[in-house]
Design brief:
The structure holds 2 protein chains of 2 kinds. Chain A is an alpha+beta fold. Chain A has one helix spanning 2-63, and strands spanning 70-77, 80-86, 94-101, 104-111, 122-126, 129-135, 140-149, 152-161. Chain A has one domain (42-161). A 5-stranded antiparallel sheet of chain A has the order 1-2-3-4-5, with helices on one face. Classes of the chains: A alpha+beta, B alpha+beta.
């Protein structure tokens, strides 16, 4: 009788240990899976944001690719290069500034006598970094966007060349 | 014998080991799925990067006045050029991703036909199905 009791106690302890192991394993598995899933999602989101920022600038340039309509002003706003799109026709005298400031890509549609400002700009997208440089002395613009991928900073380069005669 | 076994009612060491082994096996299998998902995601980004660089090649080629400009102005960085008759081969290496973009252009007077592919560690990540035409200004 005594032997059976001791046996039952050991059995119960073993079952509990086994259950604890299973619970721990499931918890770790779910935690690991959730972390892994969030990491994948975060990487994907960061990359997509960089791509959207780059595509947006690309689209803006292609839409307004006319003679002397697009120029890059160096260190124009808070030390950053600003893309200036001059409008014509009914929108004569108006400009669109596309610029990057404090982790956000902005678009500012205003009078050409005014400087760009965040206060009256539209937020396009939050992105790690966007830099715009001249390509081959005014033949186009190179847009470099940065994004975090597995905790390291990667860059995506997009070349946009002008079709209209300069 | 059966009666004796039923009376004891305890787990044997073998049973516990089997249970833990089965659990480890299931955990390992599930973890493998996450690792695979992460790898697939890495490959997707490499592929997107390659597509982006291929688009850059098309963009640059279409901005050229003539094919000679390609050699004169160093349009592609880290690029190797090879010319075989009317076939031009450009290989560009991007260190950051370890991706090589391979472009073959067949020239015909003022136009060209491009076939672009991308490789990583000698493994094709973007196939030859990516094609584009180019028209030079001159």
């Amino acid at each position: 009788m005594k032997f059976r009791d001791r046996n039952n106690t050991i059995e119960s302890v073993m079952v509990m240990i086994l259950l604890i192991i299973i619970t721990l394993a499931i918890f770790l598995l779910v935690e690991g899976g959730s972390h892994s899933y969030h990491k994948i999602l975060e990487n994907k989101e960061n990359f997509e944001k960089a791509r959207i920022a780059s595509s947006y600038i690309n689209l803006k340039i292609k839409q307004n690719d006319e003679r002397d309509a697009i120029l890059l002003k160096h260190s124009f706003y808070r030390g950053e290069n600003v893309l200036v799109i001059k409008h014509s026709g009914e929108e004569e005298g108006l400009v669109t500034y596309v610029f990057f400031s404090d982790g956000v890509l902005y678009e500012c549609y205003t009078d050409q006598t005014q400087m760009p400002s965040i206060d009256f700009s539209e937020k396009i997208i939050e992105v790690q970094n966007v830099s715009m440089e001249d390509y081959k002395e005014g033949k186009g613009i190179v847009v470099t966007t940065s994004f975090k991928f597995n905790d390291e900073l990667r860059t995506l380069r997009n070349m946009i060349t002008f079709r209209a005669d300069r | 014998m059966i009666k004796k076994y039923n009376n004891e009612q305890a787990f044997t060491m073998v049973e516990i080991i089997i249970a833990i082994a089965a659990l480890a096996l299931i955990c390992g299998f599930v973890l493998q799925i996450f690792i695979l998902a992460s790898k697939v995601n890495d490959r997707t980004v490499d592929k997107q990067f390659a597509i982006n660089e291929c688009a850059n090649v098309v963009e640059v080629m279409n901005s050229l006045d003539s094919i000679n400009q390609l050699y004169q102005d160093n349009y592609f960085e880290n690029a190797e050029f090879k010319t075989e008759g009317n076939l031009i081969i450009i290989n560009q290496l991007y260190d950051q991703y370890g991706v090589t973009v391979h472009t073959e252009i067949v020239l015909d007077h003022f136009t060209g036909y491009m076939v672009i592919s991308a490789f990583k560690n000698d493994k094709m990540i973007l196939g030859n199905e990516l094609t584009a035409s180019v028209i030079f200004k001159e």
